[in-house]
Amino acid sequence: MCFDRPFEGYVVGERHRSRGRTITEADIVQFAGVSGDFYPLHIDREYAKQTQFGERIAHGMLTLSAATGLWVMEPGCVLAFYGIDALRFVRPVKIGDTIYVESEVKQLTERSDTAGLVTVHQQILNQHGETVVDALVHMLVAREGKK
Question: Which of 62, 66, 98, 117 could potentially form a cystine with 22 if both were Cys, beta carbons 3.0 to 4.6 Å apart?
Fold first, then answer.
């Protein structure tokens, strides 16, 4: 999504598709180190071979975090990341998968004279166009002239 303008610049139904990003083994290892999540499905090749996935997969939260890096966010326009609802990890993301974010503005809520809440339906897709993560994202955005 492009969070690059004042609240008044958004329209319900507006859509955006991000650039892509390939998830690497280094991403998984570094995320495990930062998060402390060393669950063997992510970091133990032999363990992962015995699972329903047959190989290591990315942490769901890594995929979600990487997707936030694909958003366009303009300092001063974005006031705060407000939250996520209805978050679902639909399919696994494997080493070498490329993810994209498709977003649609679903709701605009005036919060104050200085801020509005932009609610976006976000789908993270893999290179095959399959949804891997689905969620409603809420971003607090500055009102016009209030950056």
Answer: 98
| 67 torsion bin: left (phi>0), alpha (psi -120 to 50), beta (else) | alpha
Query: What is the CB neighbour count within 10 angstroms for residue 144?
Result: 11
Closest by CA position to 147, among listed 74, 73, 77, 72: 77
Look up the pTM and report it.
0.93
| 34-91 pLDDT per residue, tens | 999 999 999 999 999 999 999 999 999 999 999 999 999 999 899 999 999 999 999 9
8 Å CB contact between 98 and 21: yes
User: Average pLDDT, stretch 85-102?
Assistant: 98
- CA 32 from chain centre, in angstroms, equals 18
